[in-house]
Amino acid sequence: MVVRMLVRRLLILVPLLLGVIAFVFVVMRFSDNKPEYAYFQGANPTPEQIHQFQVDNGLLDPLPVRYVRFVGELLHGDMGTSVLTKAPVVDSVSTALPLTVQLTLLGLLIAVVLALLFGVTAAIFRDRWPDQLIRLVSLIGVAAPAFWLALLMIQYLAVDRGWFPTGGYINPADSFSGWLRSMTLPALSLSLPVAAQLTRIIRTSMVEELDKDYVRTAIGSGLPPVVVVGRNVLRNALINPLTVLGLRVGYLLGGAVVIEQIYSLPGMGQLMINAVRDGDPAVVQGVVLTIAVGFVVVNLVVDVLYLLVNPRLRSAA
Hints:
It is a single chain. By secondary structure, this protein is mainly α. The protein has a domain at 98-266: MetI-like fold (Orthogonal Bundle). The chain is built from 14 helices and no strands. It has helices spanning 2-29, 35-39, 47-56, 63-75, 89-124, 129-143, 146-159, 176-210, 213-220, 225-237, 239-262, 268-278, 281-309, 311-316. α5 packs across α11. The chain is globular. The N and C termini lie close together (5 Å).
């Protein structure tokens, strides 16, 4: 039954991905960054040269024909070619993507650990001073934008104290400790607002679960409260936060665009912003499409995890 539910999710994924590709494709077609103008940037092309470029690259074909051709090229791993560098877009994306994935996963790890620690603590000490303090701090964290936190951390932790570099990236293959120092501030800046949101959700779910009869029955029968909370309450309380986590991963991917620019990290965000500034629509399209597809795939993974931890859905499947 679980396999049938998984197959159903995968079947839904196909038209969803095609819809995402179509949306990105159509939006980019109406962009002011035209490939013909980017190609002749800095020159004074004649109308005949512009027309010939459009004919050679199929830019005058009907939109449906261009979309089908674009999907066919994607199936073969071809995202097009940069009109400025003449390099395949997939090469630029494959170079920048690992850093963005590292930043997103590190930020996600920090957010989940902090949210579990403070969310569970707030629920256990409900309505006492630890709970009130955590709720106040998490409320401030929800309201604080990631770029503002990034600027504060650069000023106080990098410039004033010199604990971390102000920017730049070190490959983990060259120095793992250097990589960790270069990624700590960006990951913290990205993860703290997400951690604050998840903390409040986990705290609410834990409080609701702790009030249920089976918890009192289990503790009354002699089971240690730590065992009841860790084995039963926490697992049941994480069902709702897990659904929110999928959406927050999308926030982390989108927030990485801004954070990478602030910390001068050569990831997908910096690649896209440079492409927009230089007027390179093929690279912009490739980056946006990669992030959008990644968001869809992550939500599919979250759906599968939600199915695994929720026994009611497994029985319904």
